[in-house]
Design brief:
The complex is a heterodimer of chains A (75) and B (257). Chain A has 75 residues and is mostly helical. Chain A has a single domain, classed as F1F0 ATP synthase subunit C (F1FO ATP Synthase, Up-down Bundle), CATH 1.20.20.10. In chain A, 88% of the residues lie in helices and 0% in strands. Chain A is built from four helices and no strands. In chain A, α1 packs antiparallel against α4 and α2 runs antiparallel to α4. Chain B is mainly α. The radius of gyration of chain B is 22 Å and the shape is globular. The model of chain B has no long low-confidence stretch (mean pLDDT 87). The chains are: A mainly alpha (75), B mainly alpha (257). Chains A and B meet through α4 of A and α2, α5 and α6 of B.
Chain lengths: 75, 257
């Protein structure tokens, strides 16, 4: 296998991580809705934590995306 | 038009007004021009709402909504002592929000023009992150002196956990500026690459002239409409997340856990 094809395969493999982050983000919002519907009165006060959790989960997916871009464009 | 898709071309920084002083290149680039445009938009928006009428009009209500939103964010996350950091968080929030949104303008329909998002460059978001991180450091050491290092050991930690907790806390503290900058930069860049790639699918699909190409073009167009709406959401969300995390970090520096 030549280096160019290995690079493309590597970038594709790195992109799997974004899917894992999608699971994480879905989990954050799903759990938030789950509990917000049980206690709607307390939901508004937790929005900061919701977006904090979202940001942290999303960051890891973005890191996978960055790795894919680094493989594609830097090496 | 049909041919190779080049999604990274839109991020090139080109000089508009070349200017060299000595060996330093201080040309006005398209990045700087779009940041100036952001400044003009923010100043215009704020100017329209600073009339301080007792009964606010529509414009003043919009401005008060924005300032009130940031003020509330800071109050909730930092507490009463956060009042003096509201201008800083507001500047960050409005700059990121307006820059992100201006970058989505469909200016490419004018030949030779294309919208540019300064926040899709790590150098810009890195400077923003360093600004807020250094403010956290300055405020923390100013208020607490060397006691600021107790941030690395949350109160109530069992003593035998300390060798484990302290390195983790130090790493998580040092990673903050990178995570702040990286999140904004990658979110913006990924969105623009996605739009560019699917926009090229439409152009290439239609240019191929076949029925299949036409179908691909239609599907890509529907997709890009959805992605465009999502991008607008992400613009606001990333600005909000940046302001939220900045105020949380400031709260750490002021209230020490």
């Amino acid at each position: 296998m030549d280096v160019a094809s290995a690079k493309l395969i590597g970038a594709g493999l790195a992109a799997i991580g974004t899917g894992a982050a999608a699971i994480g983000v879905g989990f954050v919002f799903g759990q938030f809705l789950n509990s917000a519907l049980r206690n709607p009165a307390a939901a508004d006060g937790q929005q900061g934590r919701l977006f904090l959790g979202f940001a942290l989960a999303e960051l890891l997916g973005l890191m996978a995306f960055t790795v894919a871009l680094l493989i594609l464009f830097v090496f | 038009m049909a041919g190779k898709i080049d999604p990274m071309h839109q991020f090139t920084v080109e000089p508009i007004v070349p200017l060299h002083i000595g060996k330093y290149d201080i040309s006005l680039t398209n990045s700087a021009a779009w940041m100036l445009a952001t400044l003009v938009v923010i100043l215009f928006f704020m100017w329209g709402g600073m009339k301080r009428q007792v009964v606010p009009g529509r414009w003043q209500m919009a401005v008060e909504g924005l300032t009130g939103f940031v003020d509330n964010l800071v109050q909730v996350n930092i507490g009463p002592e956060g009042k003096k950091f509201t201008p800083f968080v507001f500047s960050l929030f409005s700059f990121i929000l307006v820059t992100n949104t201006l970058g989505l303008l469909p200016l490419a329909i004018i030949p030779g023009w294309h919208a540019f998002t300064p926040t899709s460059h790590f150098s810009i978001t890195g400077v923003l992150a360093i600004l807020s991180f250094s403010l956290v450091l300055i405020v923390g050491f100013w208020r607490h002196g060397l006691h600021f290092f107790s941030l690395f050991l949350p109160a109530g930690t069992p003593f035998w956990m300390a060798p484990l907790i302290i390195p983790i806390e130090i790493v998580s503290f040092l990673v903050r500026p990178f995570s702040l900058a990286l999140r904004l930069f990658v979110a913006m860049m990924a969105g623009h690459i996605l739009m560019e790639v699917f926009g090229s699918f439409i152009v290439n699909g239609l240019a191929s002239g076949s029925v299949l190409g036409f179908g691909v073009g239609i599907v890509s167009f529907l997709f890009i409409v959805g992605v465009g709406a999502l991008e607008l959401l992400i613009c606001a969300l990333q600005a909000y997340v940046f302001a939220l995390l900045t105020s949380l970090y400031l709260s750490d520096a002021i209230n020490l856990h």
